[in-house]
Each structure stands twice: as structure tokens, then as C-alpha cells.
């Protein structure tokens, strides 16, 4: 492991990079006080002492900027942070007589507590007379809170450098190698530590030849990335190719039952941990969209995953094995193949066979990160497997960071959903204790990190909800506004809420209706193309004809997908009378005249929501213009440009979808609005 680096000042304020939720002003309430770190910064394991050194640097920076002081632990500090083995996970926060004492067993948890206090600001200290004393324990719901970067080392000819990236190039790689200067990576780790994310997979799940070499020849490059993340307690993971024993090792096979293959993986893992002792593990996309996997050898995914698990187990490593496995070369004429069924068909029968250090990583919906899908039934089907919930912070299908779409409410709905009905466990209850949470990052080398400045709120919300899935997403948004715009006057706060609180629903209103999904332009997935995927091999269809639209996934007459859910949902979804409106076309093929629970017909619903969606975007533009002068010019201007594009795009969606439904159904708008 490289020697602990002294955190350079530059990490706290990168020139030309927006500070996101850690502007200096957010530190004012703590930085103006007397702070103490009750632990020597040089004890313990190297990684641990490095995190403590970071914490010390944080205290120095905050007090130097805001006039407070770092004092000795014996002095009367307003905030004392110290290590204590008595707190098993997370941290304990006690406040007595206006003084705050935080204790944690682990330096990273202590660092997280620091950002907790920063987030609470004045409220962390009993500054008003009569404020009660507190004694609180804060621990994350899950020990696994991870971001996946779909970054390529080389620029991919079609996908660019960051696959599905909408914020510029990679912060890790440039010109075919890891960047010489990684201060931005450390600044990123700092942002993540402030929301509790502590693992990153540093390369794309689609592992091309150049990226594959990170595992072997270019391991020193990964070690440099890990070193840049380490000061903030963030651990590196790597996406690997199942075919690596052949492509990198020159073996004739990558069959998981072959002894030479197993030995190759063990040796590869040994080398990784020798170089990076706190390395996290491997992420694998196998037998999916062209990636190699165990099917080539007649093996199943438990065979494949367990082989890797065996190789990393001596090092305490993890295998994140993705359940995103389906046939992407299907015959669209064959109605018996249902992509929604695929993950459950492949994985549910394997429950109980995965090694303890395998995590099966499941996309939140059965298809692919659509604006509206039911929750994946796989999450409820593997009680003897560690399953992780996978979310997509990058907005591939939700406006690509040109649209302001706050995804906190969507994720909250997923996390709170109860697969076994009222009184049963939630998705968060299933994932948190075992496999945890993973999400595809939306960050790039853009000056605002996320392209759209307001898309920072999504990255923030993922971290906060992974830490505590019961948080109210509107409250999380409020935290983000307070930190990002510390001097935000009321009108700015209200406007950002007005723009973002309902923005997920707004996007849903003017895009593919009633859970039917897709209708996006093939390839890049931005903007409308109603039939774009209809006659393709990808398995994403809506089956519109002159009589109706939607996918029959019932047991009675359709693909039987509803049967993958436990009761009560298998029956709720099966019956179009009980199926929720917003998922009707995901589960049923219905006539355009079918009457929804809302009382309107499907076709009229399409017209109404698409007209309303555009009006809502127009209102967002107006709300922003009324407060733009209250934020720095660069933020104001970037948001203005993106909102203009959002409005243009929403109009395009409205017109194409409405016209399509008018032409297919021959039924006009009851309200007589113009449809072309
Ligand atoms: C799809 C993306 C594709 C990813 C794939 C995945 O279009 O770029 O590789 O997901 O999750 O949504 O592996």
C-alpha cells in the first residue's frame, strides 16, 4: 500500500469545479467553534490512520476558514470526536449542555459523523435555550453502499468514455490511462463520505480489452485510484470479465470447473490484494448483452460466481454478481419470450447455492431502469442469497441530465415497497442487511460533476437513502438545498422544491405512459421514438395495434410473469381491475377505451398527461427564472440552458406520443386540443 498522503488543500476547493454539497459556507456553524479530535492521528492500520489524518485536516480547514480552533481533547471543546470500541457500528452522538461528543469504533464511521454534524449545522449544537440533551446512535441500514462507474479507460467508439454518462469524461481516466493528477478523485471521495457511500467500482461492467487489463498488467493504475479514494474511507472494486483467464491468461477456457481457471483467478486475486490490501472485490456482468459467462460451458451463474468467490474469500473480498441476464437477440415475433421474466427464471432457482461472499445485484425493475416499472420479483425470491438493490443515478432513461428529474421519490417508493403485502418486509428490509445498495454513478469531469447542477441532488439522495432508506426524499432534498446553497433565501429553497419535488412524475407524464416503458430512440435512449424498439431483438415492446396497447404478462393469457410475485401482488397484478393504473400497460394489453381507476380512458389519459407534462415543465422554467439571480451566474445559466432543452424535449415527446395514439386508435381528444 502506498504511504499515506498528506491531503492537499486543493482537494477542499478545486479550481473551476463546483463544490456541490460541500461549499466552505456549509462548514460555518462547525468551523466557527472549538473542535477536538480525541485520537492520535498516527495509530492503527495504515488505512485507518489515513482516514484519521483526513479528519484532522477537515477540522483544520473548517476552523481556519471560519475562525474557530482545533483544541486538545482535554480542553472544553464544543465538538469532540473520538474513537471508542464501545460503539459497534456507526457512531454515537451525545450532546450535553451545548457540547457535542461523538464516538465511533472505526475511523471511517468517525469521518461520517463529522459530516453528519456539518449537515445538521447550528442544529447539531444546543444553541437555543431549552434545547434538550441528546444521546443518539446513528448507523447505516446497510454495510454495503456502493457506486458503480461505467467508465471506460479508452474512449469507446459508440458509448464514449463513460457509458451512459452525461457529465463529460471520466474523472478517473484520460488519454487511455489513469489520470496523473487524482485530486479530483479524492474530492469526489470526500463528497461521497459526506453522504456515507464507501465503495466504488471503478470501471465499466462491459469490460473491453483495455479495461480488462486493469486486473493484471495495469493493476498499479487501480492501486493509484484506490490510494486517491482511501483518505475518505472509500474502497475500490473492479469490474472483471468472465473470460479473463483466456483473454489475459492465455488459457484455452474460462470454464468455472476447470482447475487451471480456478487457479488463475486465485492468483489474480492474490496479486490484487497484495497490491491493494483494502480492495473491495469484483463486479461481474456475465452472459448479458454480449459479455462472456458460464453459459458457454453449460454451467449456471452460481457455478460462475462461486468460482470467483473462492478466489477472493481468503482476502475478505466480495463478488457483486449482476442478475441482469436476458436474451438480447430474441425474435420479436416470438411472443413467448418475455425479457421481464429472465432474471427470475435464471436466478430464483439458484437460491441457496451462492457462496457467502457473493452478492446478487438486482436492478430495481424487471426491465431496465425505466421511469416506471414494478419492483423486480427477484428481490423477493432469494431468501437464502445476499441480494443487493441496483439503482441508476445516471439518468439514462430519465432525461440524461438534460431534464431536471429528482429520483429520490422513485427510489423511496421502491425501498418502501412490500413484496409480501401490508405488514410484510420492505425491499429495504430485504436488501439492507445482506447485499446492500449499489447504483450507477452520474458523475463525470464536468465542472458541476453531474452536467445538470440539479442532478447533484440525485447523487446526494442515493447516499442518504442507502444509509437510511426510511428518510423522506423531500427532506433529503431540503438537506441538499441547505448544504449546496447555504445562504439560500426562502424563495430559492421553495423554487428548487417546486422544480424537483414532482419532477419524476412530470417526466413520467410526458414520456411512455402507464408503465409501458421504452418508446425511446434506440441506441442513445434520449427523446421519443414510439416504435423505435418495436421490431428489434431487445425484448422491449408495447404491442400497440389499432385496438389497444400493452404487454400481457398475466398467467391466464400472457407470459406468466405475474406468477413470479408472491401473494398478494401476483393476484393484484394479474387482474386488470386491481392492477394499479401506473403499471397497467406493463402487465396488460388493453383497448384504448379501457377505463382506468382514475375514471378516464387509456387514450384520454395519454392526451391529458402529455399536455399536462409540458405545462408542468413550462412552470419549472418560470420558477427558475424567478430565482436564478439568487444563485451564482454559472449555475443559473447551466440550469437555464438545460431547462430550455427539457421544455423542447417534453413538447417533442408530447407531440409524438399523442399523435401516435390518435393515429392508432382513431379516437380524438375529448377536450379538442390540437394533435397533429
Ligand atoms: C442498460 C444500458 C447499458 C448497460 C446495461 C447494464 O443501456 O449501457 O450496459 O444497462 O446494466 O440499461 O449492464
Secondary structure elements and their pairing?
Elements: H1 28-31, E1 34-37, H2 46-66, E2 69-71, E3 79-83, E4 91-96, E5 99-104, H3 107-120, E6 134-138, E7 145-148, E8 151-156, E9 160-162, E10 173-174, E11 177-178, H4 183-193, E12 199-201, H5 209-212, H6 219-229, E13 235-239, H7 244-247, H8 259-275, E14 281-284, H9 301-312, E15 318-322, H10 342-347, E16 358-363, E17 386-392, H11 408-416, H12 427-431, E18 437-440, H13 456-467, H14 473-484, H15 490-500, H16 503-510, E19 548-549, H17 569-574, H18 584-587, E20 590-591, H19 602-627, H20 633-665
Parallel strand pairs: 1-2, 1-3, 3-5, 7-12, 7-18, 12-13, 13-14, 14-15, 15-16, 16-17, 17-18
Antiparallel strand pairs: 4-5, 4-6, 8-9, 10-11, 19-20
Bound molecules: beta-D-glucopyranuronic acid (BDP).
Number of DSSP E strands: 20
Bound molecules: beta-D-glucopyranuronic acid
Q: Give me the secondary-structure category.
A: alpha/beta
User: What is the number of independent domains?
Assistant: 3
Helical proportion?
Answer: 25-40%
Beta-strand portion reads: 5-15%
CATH fold type of the largest domain: TIM Barrel
**Gyration radius from CA atoms, angstroms:** 25 Å
Average of pLDDT: 96
- Strand order, main sheet: write it out: 7-12-13-14-15-16-17-18
CATH class call of the largest domain: Alpha Beta
CATH H level, superfamily name of the largest domain: Glycosidases
Amino acid at each position: 500500500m502506498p504511504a499515506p498522503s498528506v491531503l492537499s488543500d486543493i482537494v477542499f476547493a478545486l479550481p473551476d469545479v463546483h463544490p456541490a454539497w460541500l461549499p466552505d459556507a456549509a462548514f460555518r456553524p462547525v468551523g466557527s467553534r472549538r473542535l477536538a479530535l480525541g485520537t492520535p492521528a498516527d495509530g492503527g492500520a495504515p488505512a485507518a490512520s489515513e482516514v484519521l489524518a483526513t479528519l484532522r485536516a477537515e477540522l483544520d480547514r473548517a476552523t481556519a476558514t471560519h475562525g474557530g480552533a482545533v483544541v486538545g481533547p482535554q480542553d472544553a471543546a464544543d465538538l469532540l470526536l473520538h474513537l471508542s470500541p464501545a460503539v459497534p457500528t456507526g457512531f454515537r452522538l451525545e450532546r450535553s449542555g451545548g457540547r457535542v461528543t461523538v464516538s465511533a469504533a472505526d475511523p471511517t464511521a468517525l469521518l461520517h459523523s463529522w459530516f453528519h454534524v456539518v449537515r445538521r449545522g447550528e442544529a447539531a449544537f444546543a444553541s437555543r435555550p431549552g434545547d434538550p440533551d441528546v444521546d443518539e446512535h446513528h448507523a447505516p441500514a446497510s454495510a454495503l453502499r456502493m457506486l458503480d462507474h461505467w467508465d471506460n479507460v479508452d474512449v469507446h467508439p459508440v458509448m464514449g468514455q463513460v457509458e451512459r454518462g452525461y457529465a463529460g469524461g471520466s474523472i478517473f481516466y484520460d488519454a487511455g490511462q489513469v489520470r496523473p493528477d487524482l485530486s479530483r478523485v479524492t474530492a469526489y471521495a470526500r463528497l461521497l463520505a459526506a453522504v456515507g457511500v464507501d465503495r466504488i467500482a471503478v470501471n465499466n461492467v462491459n469490460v473491453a480489452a483495455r479495461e480488462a487489463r486493469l486486473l493484471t498488467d495495469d493493476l498499479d493504475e487501480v492501486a493509484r485510484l484506490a490510494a486517491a479514494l482511501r483518505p475518505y474511507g472509500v474502497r475500490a472494486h473492479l469490474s472483471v470479465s468472465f473470460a479473463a483467464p483466456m483473454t489475459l491468461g492465455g488459457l484455452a477456457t474460462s470454464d468455472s470447473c476447470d482447475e487451471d481457471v480456478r487457479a488463475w483467478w486465485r492468483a489474480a486475486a492474490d496479486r490484487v490484494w497484495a497490491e491493494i490490501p483494502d480492495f473491495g472485490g469484483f463486479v461481474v456482468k456475465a452472459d448479458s448483452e454480449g459479455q462472456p459467462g458460464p453459459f458457454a460451458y453449460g454451467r449456471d451463474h452460481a457455478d460462475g460466481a462461486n468460482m470467483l468467490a473462492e478466489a477472493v474469500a481468503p482476502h475478505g473480498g466480495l463478488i457483486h454478481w449482476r442478475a441482469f441476464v436476458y436474451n438480447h437477440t430474441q425474435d420479436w415475433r416470438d411472443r413467448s419470450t418475455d425479457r421481464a421474466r429472465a432474471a427470475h427464471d435464471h436466478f430464483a432457482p439458484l437460491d441457496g447455492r451462492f457462496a457467502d461472499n457473493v452478492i446478487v445485484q438486482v436492478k430495481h425493475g424487471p426491465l431496465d431502469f425505466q421511469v416506471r416499472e414494478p419492483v423486480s420479483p427477484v428481490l423477493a425470491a432469494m431468501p437464502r442469497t445476499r441480494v443487493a438493490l441496483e439503482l441508476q443515478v445516471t439518468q439514462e432513461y430519465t432525461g440524461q441530465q438534460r431534464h431536471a428529474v429528482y429520483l429520490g421519490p422513485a427510489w423511496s417508493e421502491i425501498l418502501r415497497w412490500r413484496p409480501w403485502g401490508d405488514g410484510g418486509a420492505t425491499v429495504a428490509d430485504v436488501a439492507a442487511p445482506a447485499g446492500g445498495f449499489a447504483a450507477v454513478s452520474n458523475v463525470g469531469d464536468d465542472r458541476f460533476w453531474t452536467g445538470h447542477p440539479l442532478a447533484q441532488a440525485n447523487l446526494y439522495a442515493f447516499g442518504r437513502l442507502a444509509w437510511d432508506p426510511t428518510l423522506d426524499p423531500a427532506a433529503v432534498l431540503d438537506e441538499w438545498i441547505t448544504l449546496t446553497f447555504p445562504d439560500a433565501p426562502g424563495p430559492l429553497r421553495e423554487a428548487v422544491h417546486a422544480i424537483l419535488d414532482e419532477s419524476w412524475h412530470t417526466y413520467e407524464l410526458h414520456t411512455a405512459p402507464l408503465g409501458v416503458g421504452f418508446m425511446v430512440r434506440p441506441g442513445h435512449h434520449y427523446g421519443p421514438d414510439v416504435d423505435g424498439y418495436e421490431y428489434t431483438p431487445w425484448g422491449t415492446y408495447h404491442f400497440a395495434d389499432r385496438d389497444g396497447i400493452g404487454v400481457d404478462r398475466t398467467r391466464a393469457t400472457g407470459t406468466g410473469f405475474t406468477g413470479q410475485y408472491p401473494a398478494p401482488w401476483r393476484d393484484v397484478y394479474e387482474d386488470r381491475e386491481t392492477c394499479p393504473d401506473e403499471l397497467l400497460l406493463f402487465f396488460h394489453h388493453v383497448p384504448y377505451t379501457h377505463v382506468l381507476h382514475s375514471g378516464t380512458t387509456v387514450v384520454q389519459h395519454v392526451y391529458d398527461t402529455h399536455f399536462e407534462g409540458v405545462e408542468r415543465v413550462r412552470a419549472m422554467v418560470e420558477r427558475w427564472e424567478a430565482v436564478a439571480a439568487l444563485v451564482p451566474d454559472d449555475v443559473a445559466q447551466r440550469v437555464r440552458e438545460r431547462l430550455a432543452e427539457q421544455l423542447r424535449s417534453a413538447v417533442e415527446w408530447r407531440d409524438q406520443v399523442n399523435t401516435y395514439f390518435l393515429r392508432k386508435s382513431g379516437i380524438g381528444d375529448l377536450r379538442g386540443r390540437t394533435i397533429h
